[in-house]
Amino acid sequence: MSTYRSRLSDVYRLLNQPNIKREKATNAGLWFDKYIKDQGGNDATKRGKLIRELIDGVIELPPPDTYRAFYKQWEKILEGYGAKTRTGKVKGRMVVGLGDESVLETSITLHRTYGVPYIPGSALKGLAASYARHQLGDAWKEDSDAYTVVFGKTDDAGFIIFFDAFYIPGSAMQGEGNSKIEQMLFPDVITVHHPNYYQNNGNAPADWDSPNPVAFLSATGSYLIALAAPELASPQREQWIERTFSILEHALATMGIGAKTSSGYGRMTLEAPAPPPPPPAPPVNPEVRTAEGYKREIEALRDVAGGINAYYQRWKQLTSPEARMIVADAIVAKMKQAGREKASAEKSWYKDLIAFLNEAGK
């Protein structure tokens, strides 16, 4: 036990060193939540400086490489689960978890393992449910059929699963050219102008009150929003998921998510799903390419009487119906253009071509 306590004391002493460094792979959430250092005691100036140093250090941290690997794996997990995804892009800044416990007076929701901002699925579900109840009329009032299917009831879960929305690596690039950096978090300030008044001390707000600026972190970038409904049968599953995405789209755009939404924070645009890739083009028969070449030569042929029969001989060697159609059609069209249709009408090779075209319905 004494050895354990000795090692724990060493850890605490290390964390209290003024020259402790933040490496590239440092977890921003761990640094922000568990940073152990004298916060200045009652010295407001010193405390403010130390807090600003802490915030400046956190915003400089990029997402670790391990998170990028996790995100790729997460996409595969969602795909395997049958979830549908959309990209939600923060229009300005977003702050989720402002009132959570923190070493500062404010907080922000950061992933416990990777230290990147994310939106809990419960927050997305709560936002969508609130929008549905207040904006979509009686059809979506609480305990209605539609509301119950998506959001459930007190004693029964809904059919739609709201996954945590994870930050999309590379979506918060700042700067231009070679100076671009990835910055997910930004410093912000809440200024309480009349602290005594808001604390209900009986003091009216006055011009001589001392404003109290409170630092906090806000996030930006894009986030992968995913929904699933494994217990619903297709096509109902797709219909309900799209309906829920529509509710989320309007809720994120008009109400916003997280804290300080009345000040414009938390507004997001939900990008339309990417169209499915076009089906692969069928392989082209080499004979068709050859026939197209013959067609171009026939169209450019000047000595029709002397040269057209050679292309008939080539036509007989073709085996592909499509290729034979191209060349036969080109020969007959050239004969008509040259005014030799009547002169060739009784020739066996010309009859052969006409019979082939008639049989093909040309």
Report a brief summary of the structure.
With 362 residues, the protein is α+β, with helices and mostly antiparallel strands. It has 13 helices and 12 strands.
N-to-C SSE string, H for helix and E for strand:
HHHHEEHHEEEEEEEHEEHEHHHHH
Please estimate the helix content: 40-55%
Task: Please report the total strand number as a whole number.
Answer: 12
Terminal CA distance: 96 Å
Taking the sheet with the most strands, its summary is: 6 strands, antiparallel
Count every helix, treating DSSP H or I runs of 4 or more residues as helices: 13
The number of distinct structural domains comes to 2
Q: Please state the average pLDDT score.
A: 83
Q: Which structural category fits the helices and strands?
A: alpha+beta
What is the overall silhouette? elongated
Residue share in β-strands: 5-15%
- Rg (C-alpha, Å): 35 Å
Uncertain stretches = none
